[in-house]
Amino acid sequence: MQGFKYYNPVGIHFGPDSLDVLPQLAEGKNLLVTSPGAVRRGMVQGLKGRVEIVAVIDDVQPNPTFEYLRTKFEFVQGLDYGKIIALGGGSVLDTAKVLSVQPADGQFASLEGLIKGAKADYTVNPLLAIPTTAGTGSEVTPWATVWDMGAGEKYSLHLPDLWPQACVCQPSLTKSMPWDLTLHTGLDALSHSLEAIWNKNANLISTGYVITAAKKIVRTLPRLREDLSNLELRTDMMYAALQAGLAFSNTKTALAHAISYYLTAHKGIPHGLAAGFPLPHIIKAAQEKADVHGVLQYIWGPNPYEACLEFFIALGVPTSCGEMGISPQDLEEMRGSLNAARAGNSVVDVARVFDILAG
User: Fold this and answer.
1) 5 in a domain, yes or no?
2) How far apart are the first and last CA of the chain?
3) Which residue(s) pair with 52 in the sheet?
4) Domain containing 288: what range?
5) What pTM did the predictor assign?
6) In which residue ranges of the chain is pLDDT below 70?
7) CATH code for position 278
8) Which residue among 149, 183, 244, 298 sits deepest, i.e. has the most Cβ atoms within 10 Å of its Cβ?
9) Any idea what the CATH number is for the domain that residue 110 is in?
């Protein structure tokens, strides 16, 4: 057995009544970051009855940008709060993580520099993450995604102390998700788990999480399509997404996510679908590596590529570039603009995957 390391400091509260712990976790004054959807579904009002909220940011949209974050950064300056509560999906958690970072000079330019890899002194406000989707895994990771849509660029704020202090996972919060959002977030969770397999940072703990998470997703998503209000299935999906998060919190993502950034920035494809689409094609290439193939067989059976392809087709997920509206020129642009760090985590040959994508 080879040596490895694994670290995740997030306190996890999971279960049907996990929100009951909030008064203990969020004592004192809190800033709430959430989305319009959470407001419409009454989640925000329910939260206000449990903890003290001094201010609310409730207009978070998918894929937070520098422009949006600058306005919210300026809004929170001078507010009197101790912790940030993030109630929502991945974009809400990303926004809250960015706003939890306070540069020593109080300038957004310094925060933008941190996001883009520069150095600056900063402090971090404690963050409590309450996911309302089952896919992002951001409740147990130390990074946040920020977009520059004008330039077609995606950035990741990654700081050693950006982990949420705790996450509160109550599966009933996901029951109102429509099928398209359920599917896309489920594909994101599946991508997180599989990306931790063909990954140079894979270890025994992450792989254990991966196998359990991916098998549960593959078993649960088709059933959930037919019974969206089934709380048992919602619980399984939230637990699988959490396990996938625990896996890639240490491995980081790899080639599928590197491909997805182009699809989201240039084609407007939702992140989960963009991250899920490449999976069968990467699996086809990954099967050529015996150690990776062996792990994939635990999830998909003797023929992982065929099984994954059938799974996608059964769910109505596009499996070819043509179905996704990706032209040969798009494919070449995608290859040339791959996020080097994410693609570099992959042990699967990038050129081979693009040959498969090209058909």
Assistant:
1) no
2) 38
3) 29
4) 177-358
5) 0.96
6) 1
7) 1.20.1090.10
8) 244
9) 3.40.50.1970
